[in-house]
Design goal:
heterodimer; A: 247 residues; 9 helices; 0% strand; B: 129 residues; Helix Hairpins; 5 helices; elongated
Chain lengths: 247, 129
């Protein structure tokens, strides 16, 4: 009965949403916002950046991206504090992780694929202003490489101190590049370098630099998050099994 | 009914049904992990809805690659056939925020599981009042 009511309620919401969005003109030129047209014209002319989405994310709305990176940092910090476990407990439980062994196919493939995945991630965030992709996407790709290693080699551990340093340095680079704009007598995150030529690797001024910093930061944060969740969840399972055996 | 009409119904229908499926999971499911998954599905539906609003018929990605510049010669002509980049930038932000929300929610679920030994919200009495 409860399910039936909620289904009727949801179908009504779906119908109303569909009616509203059906009334909006679709696919014609008039749906494009004036802001979008402004960005499309000024990104290749003023900034010489081919990928308009990148120039919006990093330059026109760069302050917003700084906030976004902060949210990601907060998420990883919150994860660490929610799943907090005292150091001695942590080290006492970490050997349980090595008791489960991945199959040899996974281990060999992980070893071969890991450098390629990292290379692809680096390519994606270095060419963020020329091709689809950017710091966030490249960082996520690199983090999947680390996830592969974590799944394949259970004795593989990630040093959280290194991750913290990479993350902090990348964040400081982002904020520092923004502050240099102020010291040059302009605004925060002002593009103070020469913009170069369209569709060249070194173009767009500070945009590639910021996206490289974002790539490192996202890769470090996501690797930390994956490692935290994976280690905690595996040890939770193992302690469950052990208490069952003992009890 | 032309192609554009079919595309419109298909994309709006798909994104709205994703949102509704996610909402259904959040309302009716009792397992906390399923609720988090429902939130994640809703997130994806919203992202698809945003991208659909920015669509332009026969449009290309908003990237002035060498091939596009060769075909249309000038920036003005090329920007006429490109989809709206603003929604794409917004969705890029939304995906990252959605990831953060999902990760923190799953961490809370893990913590609850460790405390109560269950992920069923009916059995976690502390949540009731």
């Amino acid at each position: 009965m409860k399910k039936l009511i909620s289904i009727i309620f949801l179908l009504y919401i779906a119908y109303q949403l569909f009616v509203v969005f059906y009334a909006i003109p679709f696919g014609t030129d008039e749906v494009r916002s004036k802001v979008g047209k402004f960005y499309l014209e000024h990104s290749p002319k003023d900034l010489q950046v081919a990928n308009t989405v990148t120039s919006i994310v990093v330059n026109f709305r760069g302050f917003d991206t700084l906030g976004e990176v902060t949210v990601l940092f907060l998420a990883s910090t919150a994860l660490g504090s929610i799943l907090f476990r005292r150091r001695e407990v942590h080290t006492r439980l970490s050997h349980l992780r090595t008791s489960v062994e991945a199959s040899s196919i996974v281990r060999v493939t992980g070893r071969i694929l890991f450098p390629m995945i990292v290379l692809l991630g680096a390519y994606v965030f270095i060419h963020g202003h020329l091709t689809p992709g950017g710091g966030f996407q490249g960082g996520v790709i690199i983090a999947t490489g680390f996830l592969f290693l974590l799944l394949a080699y259970r004795q593989f551990t990630i040093d959280h101190k290194t991750i913290m340093w990479v993350e902090s340095l990348a964040g400081i680079t982002f904020a520092g590049i923004g502050l240099v704009g102020i010291f040059m007598g302009k605004t925060f995150l002002e593009n103070f370098l020469g913009v170069g030529k369209l569709n060249e690797l070194i173009s767009g001024g500070i945009i590639p630099l910021i996206y490289i910093a974002v790539g490192f930061k996202v890769a470090a944060e996501l690797t930390g998050i994956l490692d935290t969740i994976l280690l905690i969840s595996i040890t939770v399972d193992e302690t469950e099994n052990q208490t069952e055996k003992n009890g | 009914m032309d192609n554009l009409q079919i595309l419109k119904i298909a994309f709006y229908g798909a994104s709205i049904s994703l949102i509704i499926v996610g909402l259904y999971a959040v309302i009716t499911k009792r397992n906390l992990i399923k609720i988090v998954l429902g939130l994640s599905i809703m997130d994806n539906g919203l992202n698809l809805l945003f991208i659909t609003i920015g669509f332009v018929n026969n449009g290309t990605a908003p990237i002035f690659s060498p091939l596009v510049m060769e075909k249309y010669k000038t920036v003005e002509a090329a920007s006429q056939v490109m989809v709206d980049p603003v929604v794409q930038a917004l969705v890029l932000t939304a995906i990252v925020i959605g990831f953060g929300v999902t990760a923190v929610a799953l961490a809370l679920v893990l913590r609850l599981y460790r405390h109560h030994n269950t992920t069923n919200i009916d059995e976690i009495r502390n949540l009731k009042w």
